[in-house]
Amino acid sequence: MTTGSSGCPSSPAAHSVPGASLGILRIGGDSKEVAFAQHGVLSTATEVEVTDDTVFQIGSITKVWTSTVVMQLVDEGKLDLDAPLAEVLPELQLADPDVAKQVTMRHLLTHTSGIDGDIFTDTGRGDDCLELYVDQLAEVGQNHPLGATFSYCNAGFNLAGRVIEKITGQTWDQALRERVFTPLGLAHTVTLPEDALLFRAAVGHVAEGDEDPHPAPVWGIPRSSGPAGLVTASAADVLEFARMHLEGGVAPDGTRVLSEAAAAAMTEHQTDVPDPYTLGDSWGLGWIRFGWDGHRMIGHDGNTIGQSAFLRILPEQGIAVTLLTNGGNARDLYEDLYREIFAELAGVAMPAPPTPPATPPAVDATRFTGTYERASAHIEVLEKDDVLRLRLTATGPMAALMDEPTHEFDLVPVADALFAFREPGTQTWTPVVFYSLPTGEPYVHFGVRATPKVS
């Protein structure tokens, strides 16, 4: 990718991405090679160009940074991954009192707590915002029984951030800055919007269907969701963070940020994902685990309001690639670029996302129809003119940020309980998996979230 590229299929312009920053790192022995490329503008309203030092919201890649601080506390003997969180937060109250007594940090880092995950309650800008956020979790439902399945859980990482605060006596922002940003020398990484204003900061863009992306009405998510997704950084700083993990927890100046054992533990298999197609096939402690062409990779994606970020690391070859974007069909751009980059640099083929066959299999879909519900999402699966359709309605605070909270898609069969749909204007199919818990309760899994059937 080169600045101003527009014609090739893998260029940002071809995917309606207003601005993007790409970074590639390769280390081996004492050598380090990095390359960067940029495209487009921070905002279509100002047309200020993206440069090397532009900062983008990296969204849920933040979760790996939060997990890194958690593992530092484990290294220091201040936290046990398998001890009940109630030992640190005796005031913790959840909708299920038994879960409040039993849930552990390992449950949070592996998205298996069952706490309904998409809770973005704004509890203000004060240093007590996480404390207030955790207080309101008593009113949040349990999406699935503790440890019964995997369901992506932003709320769990905000709770993890509060645990960090209780142990360190600092805000999550302060702890992250002192424990990660400073030792790694990250000069273009922040957590607060007033700090992002000091840099060349990208603005998110949104669009409906095939319309051109336009600046989002809100710049960022609430401070109370910081541990789940509020880091803003340059591509170079994201790669420095990746490099520390590639080098077993050591900063460029030799400072040990994490023990080698803790860095390795973060990459190890913890739980499988019912939908292994959207992101990875399994999860570590914070890291997503990917199986590409017989090679084990780690990484994470991030999506905030009109911004999307991607990070993939191939430890065996010392390669890390990050892509930061501010709108458009960012996932299509990621698919095109990463397929090309990893094939050329590493000889590794990126797996193709599941695509419906030319002649879809005959499937008795009536058993999947009904209503599924979790925090922030009301899902109806219905048959219409002999076609299975999925009607998704966003609810809660996020719905207010959307021009149209309800979207409807045709579900095309791929296999017996695997379907896929494609959003207008995109080339990537979204997998939808229907399955049951070991105890028999029916669920649908897509967007890496489990949603129980309620009627």
TrEMBL record:
Extract the SUPFAM superfamilies matched here.
beta-lactamase/transpeptidase-like (SSF56601)
Q: Where is the Beta-lactamase-related domain?
A: 13-333
Highest taxon of the source? Bacteria
Coiled coil (UniProt feature): none
One Pfam family, short name: Beta-lactamase
Name it. Answer: Beta-lactamase family protein
The record lists the organism as Solicola gregarius
